[in-house]
Every structure is written in structure tokens, then in C-alpha cells.
UniProtKB/TrEMBL annotation, chain A:
Keywords assigned: Growth regulation, Nucleus, Transcription, Transcription regulation
Protein's GO biological process: regulation of DNA-templated transcription; regulation of growth
Taxonomic source organism: Rubroshorea leprosula
Pfam families: bHLH_ILI (PF23174)
PANTHER family (alphabetical): TRANSCRIPTION FACTOR PRE, TRANSCRIPTION FACTOR PRE3
UniProt GO molecular function: protein dimerization activity
Cellular component, GO annotation: nucleus
Boundaries of every BHLH domain copy: 5-59
Protein name per its UniProtKB record: BHLH domain-containing protein
Compartments where found: Nucleus
Automatic annotation (TrEMBL), chain B:
Pfam families attached to this UniProt entry: IBH1_N (PF26576)
CDD domains (UniProt xref): bHLH_AtIBH1_like
SUPFAM superfamilies: HLH, helix-loop-helix DNA-binding domain
UniProt entry keywords in alphabetical sequence: Nucleus, Transcription, Transcription regulation
Annotated InterPro entries: bHLH_AtIBH1-like, HLH_DNA-bd_sf, IBH1-like, IBH1_N
Region (Disordered): 1-40
Primary location class: nucleus
Domain (IBH1-like N-terminal): residue spans on this chain: 42-100
One GO-annotated biological process of the protein: regulation of DNA-templated transcription
The organism of origin for this protein: Rubroshorea leprosula
Record protein name field: IBH1-like N-terminal domain-containing protein
Length: 91, 209
């Protein structure tokens, strides 16, 4: 019991096992479109983290572009709200 | 005498094992129920309708949008609705909802400074020699390359700047799925607005009386 406590204090984590970390990294890798197909153990952790950062940045940029486009569409078309409501009611 | 004592102990053990198994299966179930399914059609429709409500309240038609330009206001509304859709179960969603209140009183300069810092960190790590680190080595968590990337990732996911590695990884998986849904919903909405207003009347089936 005391050895487990000292080990957790060393690593600084709250009793999270390394297997759990490995599972999380694998799960993360499954989400990334770039390196989804490769064997999970073949990818280095640094690569997965790098791809994750890039992917999140790409998604942020896409959301920004879509926001710009939406703001333009909403301001230019006055009948936009009517069109939205109509389309929503018909679905 | 010995048999009388040993029997209750034996029963307790089997009961404890049964209870443990039940608890483990319950925990697994609750874990599955907790994480949202960001890929479901229903979730996307819920988000889309909430987004439309929020956007109709955003005053885009004001003569002079002061601090938030139109696009920025839409982005903030979209993020806020996304955080609401997460039902506050994740750290990033709670951080988004609370940061809006903080930013109103804090100066904007601090928010503008952080992207520059993260950009410098990324370029530095790219130029350094990439050492092949297997996932097994991740447990050391002391390698500078991995440390830097973890910090960058923590900066990208809202509310995870000072969190330990497993928390960041878990938040990132949920955040990525949520962002993908946000992109899907917003692009569908943009398609609706740009192409739908022209052809909606023709595509609508006439109600048969």
C-alpha cells in the first residue's frame, strides 16, 4: 500500500495506470483521420499528440470560416429566418 | 467450531465477488451513458435548432458591431451552444461557459497573447529532432518533446491548461468529436441558407387536403 502511494506521488498522477493512458492515446488515434489505419502500437505518442493538435487547429479554422460565412448569409438575406423556419418545419 | 467460523467467511467472499462484478458492470454502463454520442443525427439536430435560436438573438444587423465582428459573434454563439449541448459533463464545456463571464471583465490582451506563445512552441518543437517515442515510453512523461506537445494540446482544448495528461487526453477525444459535429451542423446550416431559400418552395410537397 505504501509503495503504491509513493509511486503515485513520484509520477504526480492520481493512481491512473499506464494502461489507461495507453488506451486513451489509442482511442485518440482512432479519431484522427490522418493516422487512423496504422497499427496502434506503431505510432509514437509524440506523433499522435502532434496530429491531434493539428487536427484541432484545423477544426477551429473550419468553424471560424463557417462562422464568417454564416454571419454574411444571415446579414445579407432578410428572408433567411423565414427560410430557416420553413425548412425546419418541413423536415 | 472451525467450520461454523469458516462458512460465513466463504459466503462473504462470494458475495463480495458478486458485488464487485455488479459494480464493475454498472460503472461500465454509466461510463457509456455518460459520454455523448456526437455522431448521432438526433444530437446534430438538437444542436442545429439551439444554434438557430441563439443566432437569431445575436444582433448582427446592428449598424456598427463594436468589439465582436459578425463572424466572431457567430463563433462565440456556436461554441456556447456546443458547450450547452455537452450538458456540462466535460471540462471543456464548463470552461467555455464560464470563460464568457470572465472575459467580460478581463482585458482582451491576455487572450491575444496566448496564440502567439503557442505558435512559437510549435515551431520550436518542429525544428528539433523528432525522437521516436513509443506509446509505452509515454509513462515517463519526462521527455521534453512529449511535454511540450502535451502543453500545446492543453492550450488548445478549453479549460485544460494545467491538467494532467490523462485528463487532457480524455477531454481531447470528446472535444474533437464535438467539434466535428459542430462543423457538420454549421455547414448544413450554411447550405440551407445559401441554397435552400431559392429552392425551398419547389421542393416542398404540397399538403394534400
Amino acid at each position: 500500500m505504501s509503495s503504491r502511494r509513493s509511486r503515485s506521488r513520484q509520477s504526480g498522477s492520481s493512481r491512473i495506470t499506464d494502461d489507461q493512458i495507453r488506451d486513451l492515446v489509442t482511442k485518440l488515434q482512432q479519431l484522427l483521420p490522418e493516422i487512423r489505419e496504422r497499427r496502434p502500437d506503431k505510432e509514437s505518442a509524440a506523433r499522435v499528440l502532434q496530429e491531434t493538435c493539428n487536427y484541432i487547429r484545423n477544426l477551429h479554422r473550419e468553424v471560424d470560416d463557417l462562422s464568417e460565412r454564416l454571419s454574411e448569409l444571415l446579414t445579407t438575406t432578410d428572408t433567411a429566418q423565414a427560410a430557416i423556419i420553413r425548412n425546419l418545419l418541413m423536415q | 467450531m472451525a467450520s461454523v467460523i469458516s462458512n460465513p467467511v466463504g459466503n462473504m467472499n462470494s458475495d463480495r465477488i458478486k458485488r464487485k462484478k455488479k459494480r464493475k458492470s454498472l460503472i461500465k454502463e454509466s461510463q457509456q451513458n455518460q459520454s455523448q454520442n456526437w455522431k448521432s443525427e438526433a444530437q446534430q439536430q438538437i444542436y442545429s435548432s439551439k444554434l438557430i435560436q441563439a443566432l437569431s438573438q445575436v444582433s448582427l444587423n446592428s449598424p456598427s458591431p463594436s468589439a465582436p465582428r459578425g463572424g466572431r459573434a457567430v463563433r462565440e454563439a456556436a461554441d456556447r451552444v456546443l458547450a450547452v449541448a455537452a450538458k456540462g459533463r466535460t471540462r471543456w464545456s464548463r470552461a467555455i461557459l464560464t470563460s464568457r463571464i470572465k472575459l467580460k471583465f478581463r482585458k482582451r490582451k491576455r487572450a491575444r497573447a496566448s496564440p502567439a506563445v503557442t505558435a512559437a512552441l510549435v515551431t520550436g518543437s518542429n525544428r528539433a529532432k523528432k525522437s521516436r517515442v513509443s506509446i509505452l515510453r509515454l509513462k515517463s512523461k519526462s521527455l521534453p518533446a512529449v511535454q511540450r506537445k502535451v502543453k500545446v494540446l492543453g492550450g488548445l482544448v478549453p479549460g485544460c491548461r494545467k491538467q494532467p495528461l490523462p485528463v487532457i487526453l480524455e477531454e481531447a477525444t470528446d472535444y474533437i468529436a464535438a467539434l466535428e459535429m459542430q462543423v457538420r451542423a454549421m455547414s448544413a446550416l450554411a447550405e440551407l441558407l445559401s441554397g435552400g431559400s431559392a429552392g425551398s418552395s419547389s421542393s416542398a410537397p404540397p399538403p394534400s387536403s
